[in-house]
Amino acid sequence: MHPMLNIAVKAAIRAGKMIYRAADNLDHLTVTKKSHADYVSEVDRAAERIIIEALQQAYPTHAILAEESGAQGESEYVWIIDPLDGTTNFLHGVQQYAVSIALQHNGVLTQAVVYDPTKNDLFTATRGRGAFLNDKRIRVSKRKELADSLIGTGFPYTNFEHKDAYMAIFTDVMQKTAGLRRPGAASLDLAWTAAGRFDGFFETALKPWDLAAGALLIIEAGGMVSDLHGSDTYIKSGHICAGNPFIHPQLLEVIAPHLTAGLKGQ
């Protein structure tokens, strides 16, 4: 395992185990509403501290981009952190959430960790070395037809700027696939796509910490990742389409007629 990935894995597992223990005391947590349907708990903040302290101890000159504390420092290396992806699920006792950590080097994703503490599933990837689930190599699915495919997605919940376009895409994809699923944690949805559980995935208006680690997992598992019109600007725009090499272009084709200027990244 790459040394940088090893540090990230240890940080993710430590944070994940703390989150899992805290799930037994949901009624006693302090929760703050950041905006409509967007919550942060003391657990999110504690998990983020655990991760940042571990990363900074090992790599004190590296920069941080984290969901709760924002950007810290300047460096060619940037750690992108979501300490608890799926906070709403967590707060409702729904066991679908994860810790997500990615590393960018000069703007290129190089390391990725997505840890699901409820199932003890550890997804990891290093650029050029493949993607793994609990040390076993994973690959995207081999399904070739969109009509036979299971697609993951995420509904708009705080940013409704593109809701009409999203619902048009959702309706079209729903009618042309075997099914759509919305589990509620984008990092896990992307990790599941890398592992072949989903054949494809799309969502709008995500943040870098929602998708960075999952995107590298899919790439290293042999899949394709882009924004909604096929470009590589998904981290900047937050609009993402991913899947195996057969399904990704078919999904883009269904999405294309519904794109607005904003969804095209213009």
Low-confidence stretches: none
Cα-atom radius of gyration? 17 Å
Q: Name the average pLDDT.
A: 95
Range of helix content: 25-40%
At the fold tier of CATH, the topology name of the largest domain is Fructose-1,6-Bisphosphatase, Chain A, domain 1
Please, what is the CATH homologous superfamily of the largest domain? Fructose-1,6-Bisphosphatase, subunit A, domain 1
* CATH architectural label of the largest domain: 2-Layer Sandwich
Helix/sheet category: alpha+beta
Q: What is the quaternary state of this protein? A: single chain
**The first-level CATH class name of the largest domain:** Alpha Beta
Strand arrangement within the widest β-sheet reads: 4-3-5-6-7-8-9-10
How many beta-strand segments? 15
Terminal CA distance reads 39 Å
In short:
The chain is an alpha+beta fold and 266 residues long.
List the helices and strands and how they pair.
Layout: H1 3-22, E1 31-35, E2 38-41, H2 42-58, E3 63-66, E4 70-72, E5 77-85, H3 87-91, E6 98-105, E7 108-116, E8 121-126, E9 131-133, E10 136-138, E11 150-153, H4 163-175, E12 179-181, H5 186-194, E13 200-203, H6 208-220, E14 224-226, H7 234-237, E15 240-243, H8 247-255
Parallel strand pairs: 3-5, 11-12, 11-13
Antiparallel strand pairs: 1-2, 3-4, 5-6, 6-7, 7-8, 8-9, 9-10, 13-15, 14-15
Helix pairs in contact: 1-2, 5-6
